[in-house]
Structure formats: structure tokens, C-alpha cells
Specification:
about 75% helix, two-stranded antiparallel sheet, mainly alpha, about 5% strand, elongated, 2 strands
Amino acid sequence: MPAASALPNQKTRTYTTDTTDIWEKRGSRYTPEEKAEAWSGTAEIVKTYSDEMVQRMNKEIDTLLVYAGLFSAILTAFNVQSYPLLQPAPSPDPTLAALAHISAQLTSFSINPPFVNSTAPAFPQDMLSTSSAPSPPSWAIWLNVFWFSSLICSLAAASIGITVKQWLNHYLLGLSGASRDVARLRQFRLNGLRRWHVEGIVAVLPVLLQIALGLFAAGLLVLLWNLHATVALVVACLVGVLFVFTVATSVLPAFRADCSYISPQAIAVFWLSSNGHSHTSPSL
């Protein structure tokens, strides 16, 4: 019995000694210069990848900010002209209405001695009525819904883009050089960007601008259909061509692996289609 109980202890000591020997051999395989060179090369690869990713996101955000600024400025000019359609029609000035009525009474006087008659009533019914102002038409309501929603989407894209640029600027603080401490800090922050989906947030910005453009086009069609049918028909055809192009370039990459129309909306369509297929396909 004692010999049997000593056997596991002997195996454990042998295993520990073998593991230590392996690590000692592995550590003595490379010289300190080779280790330093390998570490420097790895740190340089991480630095290059990190800097290129941040530079790419900064350039994309700068382009989107320019587009969002121009689009918001143009859309604001349209909204300035559209929101008065929601306001009730101004009531006539009571002073002018009274003067007009007095003038009408004076004009309608007929003198038949010994009487002086007037065919105009003393107080017209429209002056005595206190009916409320008519509500705005439904097309004006929908017009402002589309255009103000479009403005909010455009401003949201600009606001989120500015916030992400602040995150990227903080990401680069203290990351000069390629020492071990800097490399560890860079890798830590790079893992944070991936964990908190910063690249996904940047990918949402062009989608917001596409939604804003679609809402603006919808409001424009609502306005033109109530002004002139011919102009509205021409604009509707142009908007339809743009809509078909956007939908086609967003859907094709989900079905053709060699399609180069890769965009955030195309990635979203591919993700939705792949998840839907995985949920509907029978399990084997």
C-alpha cells in the first residue's frame, strides 16, 4: 500500500521536471537579440495595422461630414419654406374688416325722402362667426414629416461622426514609438475598438445619410404631386432609377461572392439573409 501511494507523487514530480526542462530549452533556443527583433517586428505590424485602420476611419468620417453638412444646409432651406404650411391661415385684421364694411354700407345707401335705406347688413355673419382656423392639409403634414425626419437623420450622422473622431483622437494619445509598453497599450486599445464595435458605428453613418436622402426624395414627391403632375412624374422616374440602383447594389453582394458592390448596407443585407437562412433551414 505505501508503494502504491508513492507512485502518483513520483509521476507528478517527473511531469513537473519535464515541463520545466521544455520551457528552459525553448527559452534558450533564441538569443536576446533575436527575441528583441521578434518583439520589435510584431510591435511594428500592430502599429501599422492600427494606424491604417484609424486613418481609414478618419478619412471616411471626414467625407461623410462634408456631405452631411451640405445636405443639411440644402434641406434647411426647403424646411424653412415648408413649415409655414402647418400654421393656420392668418385671420383678417378686424380694423380693416370694419372699415370695409362701413365702406360697403355707405355705398349701398339709397335716399328715398324721408327715408335713407342701406341694403348692407349692420353686422355680417362672417364678422360675427368665431369658427376656428382650418387644419393644414394632410399632404403638408406628410411633407414636413419627411423633410424634418431627413434633417434629423443628417444631423445625427454628423453628430455621431464628430463623436467617433473624438474617440479616435483619444485612441492615438500616447502611442508614439514601438516599445513594449506602447505596443501593449496599442493592442489593449485596439481590442477595445473591436469589443465596443467602433467600426460598426462608423459603418452606420452612410446608412443614416442614405435614409435621409430617401426621406427627402419622398417629401419632394409629395410636394410636386400637389403642384404639378408632369413635373412630379419626371422627378418620380429619376428617383425610381436611383432607388433601383441603391437596392440592386445592396442586394447583389448577398448572392454573388464575386460582386464588388460592398457597402455597409450590403453587409447588413448579407447578414440578414444569412441569419434568416440559418433559422429557416432544417437542422441535419
